[in-house]
Write a structure and sequence with these properties.
With 478 residues, the chain is of the alpha+beta class. Helix content is 38%, strand content 20%.
Length: 478
């Protein structure tokens, strides 16, 4: 007669005289021991406590088992660890190490109020979705969902974390703006077909400064790519200047943002810009001589040739004034390839070639940051019915990015992983198997002895611990 352990055993292959078997009798094991580094990173930059303060909880205090802070930490840690859906948390809710990182004093869930919840220290999807699905006007009398987010407060968290990360104000910062597609597969509010992307989608607007995320705004796709940019700048620029009044700010974006309203606002508020400019017959004609020169160079050398021209340009009716334009006359094997940028920067400090090649072209790095958000941290999981709740989902993804980016900046600087993508950091540093033992005095995570990045893990732990040991709670960078 087979015993239960034999019945549950899985046989795989023979290894000489041995058989390879497996079962699920290992006990309490987590695959996410790296959550401990996420917790320490959050403590170093004080991110999720700030986010929690943006919510108003109308639930009865006598009935609350999961505070708003607990729910936010669970949700953001889950995204950083690769769990994209709320459904995943019905299983994750049993993980004692994630519960300990969230701050649960009963990481096994043994003493939960209701018997059916015991053994699950964390919230399930039905509780977590209250963060996203609560209506703006919910209050104490609302029956179910009553955790209300103040959008304007949360919008201020992103630049605050960025500003706090500097010990001294930089002399210059570049704000990169870009729009991207967020494909939709349901009947969500604000869903429209976008001809350029060829699909139904949202059109979120992002603002980055280097690797730092300053804004992520969800928008319907039946708008111009630049829609709402002035409103975002009106919010961000004064916030930055309130702390750094002397900083020189440059706005950088592609041709979708070369709009008179944006340029005029920048000119009126002491902000410089360098923006792509779509070519047209007048611009191309202005570049005719340089294009001929580039073609001659290509014919002589057989290599791609580039020649630049600096000139003043004004549209026939859409611009309110003339502006500096830099034209790149490029000739490739496939023929002429003229390109243009419009800028408020003076030619004395920013010659045409350097302005285009070193300043403008560097904006392509921002696209990699957007890819990290969408591919690694699930910014495209905007599948709820309402725009409001999908905006909150986008912000949770954004908070996951801010957290992992802080881990990269503070813990991984100077290491081979200092420029690694978020999913690489997750795979190599966060996805660690560990046996978890919980006693009266300790929660002990015995991580896999075969883990290949033990030295790196310890280095990150030491760096984060050193930051937290300092009197100043928010780490700085020069």
């Amino acid at each position: 007669m087979n015993t239960e352990c034999i019945t549950n055993r899985m046989d795989f292959k023979r290894l000489g005289k041995r058989n390879l078997h497996a079962d699920f009798s290992g006990g309490t094991i987590t695959s996410d021991a790296g959550v401990l580094l996420l917790d320490k990173t959050d403590a170093a930059i004080n991110l999720l406590n700030r986010v929690a303060s943006c919510f108003t909880d109308h639930r009865s205090p006598l009935l609350i088992e999961h505070s708003v802070s607990d729910l936010i930490r669970q949700r953001v840690f889950g995204l950083a660890l690769g769990y994209e859906d709320l459904n995943d948390h019905d299983v994750l809710s049993r993980d004692p190490l994630i519960a300990a990182a969230v701050g649960k004093r009963d990481p096994t869930g043994r003493f939960r109020r209701n018997e059916q919840d015991r053994g699950r220290p964390l919230a399930g999807k039905a509780t977590l979705n209250r963060l996203e699905l609560t209506e703006e006007d919910a209050g104490r009398e609302t029956r179910y969902k009553k955790i209300v987010l103040d959008f304007e407060k949360l919008r201020r968290v992103f630049p605050e974390v960025f500003l706090d990360s500097h010990s001294t104000p930089p002399t210059e910062i570049i704000l990169d703006l870009d729009a991207t597609d967020d494909p939709l597969h349901g009947e969500q509010e604000g869903r429209f077909f976008h001809g350029y992307y060829g699909t139904y989608c949202y059109l979120p607007l992002y603002v980055f400064c280097g690797d730092d995320l300053l804004a992520a705004e969800l928008r319907p796709s039946n708008i111009d790519a630049s829609a709402g940019t002035v409103e975002v700048l009106e919010r961000l620029i004064p916030h930055i200047r309130s702390r750094w009044p002397q900083v020189h700010i440059i706005v950088r974006a592609d041709s979708g943002f070369a709009r008179d309203a944006i340029m005029t606002w920048c000119e009126s508020n002491g902000v410089d810009y360098v923006l792509g400019l779509s070519k047209n017959s007048r611009l191309t004609k202005e570049l005719e001589e340089k294009l001929a020169e580039a073609k001659a160079l290509w014919e002589a050398t057989g290599r791609a040739a580039r020649v630049y021209k600096d000139f003043t340009y004004r549209t026939l009716d859409s611009w309110s004034r003339s502006r500096r334009v830099v034209g790149k006359a490029e000739h490739l094997d496939g023929g002429a390839n003229p390109r243009f940028v419009v800028t408020s920067l003076p030619s004395d400090d920013h010659p045409a070639a350097a302005l285009y090649e070193k300043l403008y072209c560097a904006r392509g790095e921002m696209e990699n940051r957007i890819k990290e958000q969408q591919m690694c941290l699930f910014a495209d999981r905007t599948s709820t019915a309402k725009m409001r709740s999908n905006q909150i989902r986008l912000w949770f993804s954004s908070l996951g990015y801010v957290l992992v980016n802080a881990l990269r900046r503070l813990g991984l600087r100077g290491t081979p992983m200092s420029r690694a993508r978020c999913d690489t950091i997750r795979l190599k540093l966060l996805k660690i198997g560990a046996a978890v033992r919980v006693s009266v005095r300790r929660v002990w995570a015995a991580m896999a002895s075969s883990f290949t990045e033990q030295g790196l893990f310890r280095l990150v732990w030491r760096r984060l611990s050193a930051l937290l040991a300092k009197p100043q709670t928010v780490p700085m960078r020069s």
